[in-house]
């Protein structure tokens, strides 16, 4: 078997996309509560009824039922996030909200009762709204202290329950979506490159300090970073297209370089000189950054193409970023190009660069699923398209492991249907479990197993062995 013993099979969800209960038990507002259309729509003054995330899939009240279904599939790990504003409603309080802490106690206890390890993301696109409005998020260095207070609180609280952690979800998203990525309330068009890189520095310092405190509070715990792992192919072998590919990849790798290596690479310093950027660092920052992460995690949905002159090519579609359309690849219903071999390439690229364990923190297919009734009167979704997508990608994970890459685990994104991050839609479904909720907010919220549920159950049961029989 290529998948190692102890491989962490599982799935991934995010608090703001599934929990709902957006003001229950003392929770404060997060930036997601005023983003009813995701990153593509306007920010509202107050939460509006059309924001599906306010209810999500009601995981807050149904987590026992959902985790039981994950356990039935055989999950070894569940990647989930803590809603920062459940613990500190405004973000800058000195005393945490006990009701919020109790909720995650119950969630983690339920996971552990089934033998599922929680993999907890500390900040998954859900900065407290107060910190965004009053401080401009991580553009303000003061927010580092609030973040570390939150980290220390949950590390102490869950030190006997959680041993795998991630600091910031897709930290490189700050380049393109500063509000979602770093809680910056200033409109994107008013921000300079200086502002983005200064914010990134503050997040790097916060991440490194979180690593330091985690190792002190929970010595056997592991902390990872997480980036949006969409690497580039050159459109042609023209040397200038190769240089363009190198430069685009550095946009992504810069964020992993600092957290995995503990210092700023020379190429980014040269870029700062060229762009007139001067990142302000306080004494001790460079030493703090040496607290590097224990593993690298990333999301992977597609690869991208690029060229020295992208204007002469058709533009592709993507999750949070897009490149030039690759003529050799098929596309999903949302235009995302499907490239299983690109996952093998990405795993090898990261491992060659860092020699640290890797975790595929997100991977999956968003599609419009049709719920149907079978002759035995049960309901399901015949999502063979999803099975094909996941089978092909997992086979490439296996190939990467055979290449010698140290892969810790794999978490299928949206293992239960939830509200999408990019567009805040319900119809873009990823899960092995169908949730009866519609685009207009109606629906019973009942859960139904899709065909892929049984398929993934068999994959996990055989530690990936069943993949070979399908090829």
Automatic annotation (TrEMBL):
Swiss-Prot/TrEMBL GO biological process terms: carbohydrate catabolic process
Keyword entries, A-Z: Glycosidase, Hydrolase
Gene Ontology molecular function terms on file: beta-glucosidase activity
Matches recorded under Pfam families: Glyco_hydro_1 (PF00232)
Keyword S-adenosyl-L-methionine: no
Keyword match Chaperone: no
Coiled-coil ranges from the UniProt annotation: none
InterPro entries, per the entry: GH, GH_1_N_CS, Glyco_hydro_1
Superkingdom of source: Bacteria
GO cellular component: cytosol
Family label: Belongs to the glycosyl hydrolase 1 family.
Protein name as annotated: 6-phospho-beta-glucosidase
């Amino acid at each position: 078997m290529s998948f190692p013993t102890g491989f962490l099979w599982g799935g991934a969800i995010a608090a703001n996309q599934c929990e709902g209960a957006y003001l229950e038990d003392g929770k404060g507002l997060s930036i997601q509560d005023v983003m009813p259309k995701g990153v593509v729509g306007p920010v509202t003054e107050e939460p509006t009824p059309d924001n599906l995330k306010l209810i999500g899939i009601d995981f807050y009240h149904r987590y026992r039922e959902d985790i039981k279904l994950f356990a039935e599939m055989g999950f070894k790990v569940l990647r989930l996030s803590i809603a920062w504003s459940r613990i500190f409603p405004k973000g800058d309080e000195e005393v945490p909200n006990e009701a919020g802490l109790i909720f995650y106690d119950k969630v983690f206890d339920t996971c552990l009762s089934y033998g599922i390890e929680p993999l907890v993301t500390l900040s998954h696109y859900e900065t407290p709204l107060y910190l965004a409005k009053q401080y401009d998020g991580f553009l303000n260095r003061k927010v580092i202290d609030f973040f570390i207070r939150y980290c220390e609180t949950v590390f102490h609280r869950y030190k006997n329950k959680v041993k795998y952690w991630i600091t910031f979800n897709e930290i490189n998203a700050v380049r393109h979506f500063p509000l979602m990525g770093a809680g910056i309330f200033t409109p994107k068009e008013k921000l300079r490159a200086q502002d983005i890189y200064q914010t990134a520095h503050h997040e790097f310092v916060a991440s490194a300090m979180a690593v330091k405190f985690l190792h002190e509070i929970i010595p056997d715990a592991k902390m990872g970073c997480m980036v949006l792992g969409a690497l580039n192919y050159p459109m042609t072998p023209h040397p200038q297209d190769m240089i363009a590919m190198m430069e685009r990849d550095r946009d992504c790798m810069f964020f992993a370089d600092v957290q995995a290596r503990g210092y700023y690479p020379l190429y980014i310093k040269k870029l700062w000189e060229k762009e007139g950027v001067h990142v302000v660092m306080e004494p001790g920052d460079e030493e703090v950054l040496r607290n590097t992460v224990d593993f690298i995690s990333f999301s992977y949905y597609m690869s991208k193409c690029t060229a020295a002159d992208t204007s002469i090519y058709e533009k592709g579609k993507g999750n949070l970023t897009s490149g030039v359309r690759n003529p050799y690849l098929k596309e999903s219903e949302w235009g995302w190009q499907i490239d299983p071999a690109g996952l093998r390439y990405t795993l090898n690229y990261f491992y060659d660069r860092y020699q640290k364990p890797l975790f595929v923190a997100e991977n999956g297919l968003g599609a419009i699923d049709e719920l149907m009734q079978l002759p035995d009167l049960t309901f399901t979704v015949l999502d063979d398209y999803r099975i094909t997508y996941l089978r092909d990608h997992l086979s490439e994970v296996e190939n990467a492991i055979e290449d010698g890459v140290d892969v810790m685990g794999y978490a299928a994104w949206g293992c239960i249907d939830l509200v999408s991050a990019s567009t805040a839609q319900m119809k873009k479904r990823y899960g092995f479990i169908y949730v009866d909720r519609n685009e207009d907010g109606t629906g019973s919220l009942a859960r139904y197993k899709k065909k892929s549920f049984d398929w993934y159950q068999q994959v996990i049961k055989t530690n990936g062995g069943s993949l070979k029989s399908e090829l």
